[in-house]
């Protein structure tokens, strides 16, 4: 069965701390991988995506993610978080053919000033 | 104006009532999707459409129906609302699989 698992449900960090959010997926065939962010009261916005090429992808606001095919993982990282990064983060995997995305459960990040 | 517009933004309705959530887009995308978001469950796909004549069920379509009135409009209906349909509903559009989605701002639906 196709699925996405985010290991951390709620993460609390102080400003300037490093961030890594885990994402593992189970999916047959060629995958497209995404991280979305949802700021309080807002809709989801694309942070970054991977579909081919360099497995280390860089996104907006200093975020990056690494696709490790052998581990079926696509973890999100940021070297130094800011209070404004407080949000919910969703990993998603999708089909190149249908475009349908399967989302993980989400990780709530709280950054303390 | 937003690329993907959802109306209403908030709605409270009673059990058993029929309700329609509307989504319109100016992106010119063929693919449109309806998801619901519940705390701790992420987003789950209700229905999706590749064009006006191509509509498909998602993983949780029971109790919902959709209508693709035009390339730009995709409506979600709850024929007889029940309390466990209380959720945040998102419409999204895409061009192709590797581009990801453009989301609307969401409709917060409460069924009492």
The topology string of helices and strands of chain A comes to EEEEEEEEEEEE
Oligomer: heterodimer
Rg of Cα set of chain A = 13 Å
Largest sheet of chain B: 7 strands, mixed
Structure notes:
- In chain A, 0% of the residues lie in helices and 53% in strands.
- Chain A has strands spanning 3-5, 10-14, 19-21, 24-26, 31-38, 45-50, 56-58, 64-68, 73-78, 87-95, 101-103, 107-112.
- Chain A is globular.
- Chain A starts with a strand and ends with a strand.
- Chain B is an all-beta fold and 112 residues long.
- Chain B contains no helices and eleven strands.
- The model of chain B has no long low-confidence stretch (mean pLDDT 94).
- Chain A binds chain B through residues 4, 9, 32, 34, 36, 42-46, 49, 51-52, 90, 92, 94-106, and chain B through 31, 33, 35, 40-45, 48, 58, 90, 94, 96-101, 103-106.
Summarize the structure.
The complex is a heterodimer of chains A (113) and B (112). Chain A has 113 residues and is mostly beta strands.
Describe the protein's topology.
The complex is a heterodimer of chains A (113) and B (112).
Chain A: E1 3-5, E2 10-14, E3 19-21, E4 24-26, E5 31-38, E6 45-50, E7 56-58, E8 64-68, E9 73-78, E10 87-95, E11 101-103, E12 107-112
Parallel strand pairs in A: 2-12
Antiparallel strand pairs in A: 1-4, 3-9, 5-6, 5-10, 7-8, 8-9, 10-11, 10-12
Chain B: E1 4-7, E2 10-13, E3 19-25, E4 31-38, E5 42-51, E6 54-57, E7 64-70, E8 73-78, E9 87-94, E10 102-103, E11 107-111
Parallel strand pairs in B: 2-11
Antiparallel strand pairs in B: 1-3, 3-8, 4-5, 4-9, 5-6, 7-8, 9-10, 9-11
């Amino acid at each position: 069965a196709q699925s996405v698992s985010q290991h951390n449900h709620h993460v609390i960090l102080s400003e300037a701390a490093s961030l890594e959010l885990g994402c593992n997926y189970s999916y047959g065939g060629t995958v497209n991988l995404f991280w979305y962010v949802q700021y309080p009261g807002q809709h989801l916005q694309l942070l970054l995506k991977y579909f081919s090429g360099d497995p280390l992808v860089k996104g907006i606001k200093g975020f990056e993610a690494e696709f490790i095919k052998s581990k079926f993982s696509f973890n999100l990282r940021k070297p130094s978080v800011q209070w404004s990064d407080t949000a919910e983060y969703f990993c998603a995997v999708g089909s190149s053919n249908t475009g349908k995305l399967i989302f993980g459960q989400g990780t709530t990040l709280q950054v303390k000033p | 104006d937003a690329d993907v517009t959802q109306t209403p933004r908030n709605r409270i309705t009673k059990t058993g009532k029929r309700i329609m959530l509307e989504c319109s887009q100016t992106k010119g995308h063929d693919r449109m999707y309806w998801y619901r978001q519940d705390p701790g469950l992420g987003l789950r796909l209700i229905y999706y459409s590749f064009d006006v004549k191509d509509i498909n069920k998602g993983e949780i379509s029971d109790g919902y129906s959709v209508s693709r009135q035009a390339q730009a409009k995709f409506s979600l209906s709850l024929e007889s609302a029940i309390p466990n349909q209380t959720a945040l509903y998102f419409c999204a559009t895409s061009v192709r699989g590797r581009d990801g989605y453009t989301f609307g701002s969401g409709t917060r639906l409460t069924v009492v």
